[in-house]
Design a protein that fits this description.
Length: about 500
């Protein structure tokens, strides 16, 4: 697919290359072609695409043909740039959001095409080695965007509050509804205001879609298909998410939840915004903030407090924990991180993360390493699996834990609250969810139970392969520390070489 932006960019690159080959300045070429210097600069920057008569004038001024100038062919050295511009997910990527206007990026890439080719080939090799696809890149970009903006969006909070205030008179209750009553109120709004029929049976007839929460069918009479296994709170979230697209005016979107394909950053960002809106509908900011303050005023940690919040909001554990990771930094100024792990037959995978606390996120996912089993989130998965093995017929409730963690080679403490439980639509798969706080001065002043001496304090590493602890000091190790030993040998070699040179 060739976009207008791509055509403008490649035309500008070719024009600049031809001009420089003729050793013409911008003003010299502009004079020959009968255009202004500023207009020519915008063409070369990929901001504008000239009309046919202007292209003809430029071709004559450069002693080339119209067809050659507009041809989509590029020199081999510019092929990596063309591939970059055509790559799915990058075509419409809003680099401006990250402080890098597209024309500046293209300028950098086109200045040294040979070096750029080597760089892009290297990145491509790394992506293949670690199985990094477009979706990984787009989600990494979204995560960076969230972390740059603090993962708290007052405009989305306000939009959710205004919507809830609008539907509550019809729902006939204040404060905001929860669970089944909220789902019923939202469904009435979707049917009446959006003209969308809600179907809770169709997905149940498709075994291959048993893990899909919702599907929007826009053709003909619009329908929203909801998984019949959803709890009332999950149904409310799915409905609120659909409403979010309409209320926020979001166009690029996924029609499946969770999304089964990502084609652009706009889609990924809009899916995130609609989910944020839904979370703010089912767990209103004011109520969550009051509950957080009440929780943090307790002098001692009580696991029942977290269970109480689950019961109060009637939401899934993931919705609760992730919503806390939004309100805590946004309203209380705390530095938080959120981790979601999945246990695939003993293989612990980090499937969702947010890092506002400057936590050294373990690098084990891409390299096949084993996450440190001393982390609260991995320990809870281990404990849950052991409990299920001991009592296979018992339906386990969520395991809740608390821990203060410090990296072996670090000086910062991280106060972590977490829970583990079977996934809602995949009962044979366990997940763990952790919200952690950087235990800085602000945290100590805000959270009274931070001083609770009964809370365990644990030294942790990133992965087993990088851990310097001796086997006798860690009974939780599941892999030998070969990367740590490799780096130690290299360090000893470096030290020995330095000693030789100085002798």
């Amino acid at each position: 697919m060739t976009t207008t932006a791509h055509l403008r960019t490649m035309f500008g690159v070719k024009l600049a290359r031809l001009r420089e080959a003729k050793r013409l300045t911008l003003s010299a070429l502009a004079g020959r072609a009968g255009v202004s210097t500023s207009y020519l600069a915008e063409i070369e920057a990929g901001k504008k695409y000239p009309k046919a008569e202007k292209i003809l004038g430029l071709a004559e001024a450069l002693d080339t043909t119209f067809d050659e100038l507009v041809s989509s062919r590029v020199d081999p050295e510019y092929a990596p740039l063309k591939g970059f511009l055509e790559a799915p997910g990058l075509r419409d990527f809003p680099f401006e959001r990250f402080g890098l206007p597209r024309e500046q990026l293209v300028h950098l890439l086109s200045r040294s095409p040979t070096e750029v080719a080597a760089l892009l080939r290297t990145l491509n090799d790394v992506a293949r080695q670690y199985n990094i696809g477009v979706e990984h890149f787009l989600h990494a970009a979204l995560r960076s965007y969230q972390e740059l903006t603090g993962n708290y969006y007052p405009d989305l909070e306000l939009a959710a509050e205004q919507f809830v205030d609008a539907i509550l008179p019809r729902a006939g209750s204040r404060p905001p509804l929860q669970g089944a009553p909220l789902a019923e109120a939202l469904e009435r709004w979707v049917r009446g205001e959006l003209g969308v029929r809600v179907d809770t049976e169709a997905l149940g007839r498709e075994p291959s879609l048993r893990h899909v929460r919702a599907v929007r069918l826009a053709e003909g009479s619009p329908r929203l298909l909801l998984n019949p296994e959803l709890t009332p709170s999950q149904r409310a979230f799915a409905l609120a998410r659909e409403i979010g697209y309409q209320r926020l005016g979001l166009k690029a979107r996924s029609d499946v939840s969770p999304p089964n394909a990502e084609s652009s950053f706009d889609q990924v960002l809009n899916d995130f915004k609609s989910s944020y809106f839904a979370g703010a509908v089912v767990m209103p900011r004011r109520t969550v903030l009051a509950d957080l303050k009440r929780l943090f005023r307790q002098p001692r940690w009580h696991a029942e407090s977290l269970l109480g919040l689950l019961d109060r909001y009637e939401v899934t554990a993931e919705t609760l924990m992730y919503r806390l990771s939004q309100v805590a930094p946004g309203e209380l100024g705390l530095k938080v991180h959120f981790l979601k792990f999945r246990d695939d037959n003993g293989d612990f995978r980090l499937v969702k993360q947010l890092n506002l606390s400057e936590l050294p996120i373990p690098p084990g996912h891409g390299g096949g390493e084993h996450y440190c089993r001393r982390w609260l989130t991995t320990r809870l998965l281990t404990d849950l699996a052991a409990s299920q093995h001991r009592h296979p017929k018992r339906q386990p409730g969520p395991l809740i834990g608390v821990q203060v963690s410090r990296f072996i080679d670090g000086s910062d403490d991280y106060f972590c609250l977490g829970l583990s439980l079977p996934a809602s639509l995949e009962p044979d798969v366990n997940i763990s969810l952790t919200i952690g706080f950087r235990a800085d001065e602000r945290f100590q002043k805000t959270v009274r139970f931070a001083k609770d001496r009964s809370i365990p304090r644990t030294l942790i590493s990133t992965t087993c392969e990088r851990c310097p602890l001796e086997p006798s000091a860690c009974r939780d190790r599941v892999a030998p520390p070969h990367l740590y030993l490799h780096h130690r040998i290299r360090a000893e070699q470096t030290q020995a070489l330095a000693a030789l040179r100085s002798s």
